[in-house]
Specification:
Layout lengths: L19 H21 L13 H4 L2 H30 L17 H24 L6 H18 L21
InterPro entries: CFAP97D1/2, Hmw/CFAP97
Protein name: CFAP97 domain containing 1
Pfam families: Hmw_CFAP97
Length: 175
C-alpha cells in the first residue's frame, strides 16, 4: 500500500503526506489497545467446562468394599491351599468329625431341678413303702377262686390254658 494514500482518519488539514507516519503509529497504538481490551474483556455468559469434582468419580466406599472382598477371597484361597497341602502331605482322609459338644446355658439349673425331683420321688417312695395296705389280698384271692369256679361250671368246654409261671395263680381244677 502506498504511504500517500494511507489515511485512517480524515485529516483536519488536508495536506498530502503530512502527518501520515505519525497517524499510522497512532492508529496502530489504538488498534493494539483495542485488541488488548477485547482479549481482557470477561464474557457475560459462562461458557467454560463445568468443574469436575474428584469425589464424584472416585468412589471410596466402592473401592473399600472391593478391597475387602478381595481380602476375603485371598484369605479363603490361602485356607484352601493350606488344606490341599495338608492333604498332599498326609494320606488324604476325609476329616469330617464333628467335635462340637452342645453347651447349655442353664445346665446348672436343670441339674438342681433334677436333684430336687429325685429327692421328692425318693421321699414319696419311702412313704408308699412305709404305709400298710388296707386291702386284704387273701379275701381277694378267695373271691377270685369262687368266681373261677363259677366260670368253669358254666362253660361248655373246660379251659386248657397252661400258665408259664406256677406261682402266679393256683389252678382251680384241682379239687
Amino acid at each position: 500500500m502506498d504511504k500517500a494514500h494511507y489515511i485512517a482518519y480524515p485529516a483536519v488539514v488536508d495536506t498530502p503526506g503530512h502527518f501520515t507516519n505519525m497517524r499510522r503509529k497512532l492508529d496502530h497504538r489504538y488498534y493494539e489497545a483495542h485488541k488488548q481490551r477485547v482479549e481482557n474483556v470477561k464474557p457475560v455468559v459462562d461458557n467454560k467446562a463445568p468443574r469436575t469434582y474428584l469425589h464424584f468419580h472416585l468412589k471410596m466406599k466402592k473401592i473399600q468394599m472391593e478391597q475387602e472382598r478381595l481380602a476375603t477371597v485371598e484369605r479363603n484361597n490361602r485356607i484352601l491351599l493350606e488344606k490341599m497341602a495338608c492333604i498332599k502331605s498326609t494320606t488324604g482322609c476325609v476329616d469330617n468329625w464333628n467335635n462340637y459338644q452342645p453347651k447349655s446355658l442353664n445346665i446348672g439349673k436343670r441339674n438342681q431341678e433334677l436333684v430336687k425331683i429325685t429327692l421328692d420321688n425318693q421321699a414319696i417312695l419311702n412313704r408308699i413303702n412305709a404305709t400298710k395296705s388296707i386291702y386284704n389280698h387273701q379275701k381277694w384271692l378267695a373271691d377270685y377262686k369262687v368266681s373261677r369256679g363259677y366260670l368253669t361250671q358254666i362253660t361248655k368246654y373246660p379251659e386248657t390254658r397252661k400258665t408259664k409261671n406256677k406261682d402266679c395263680l393256683p389252678e382251680i381244677n384241682k379239687k
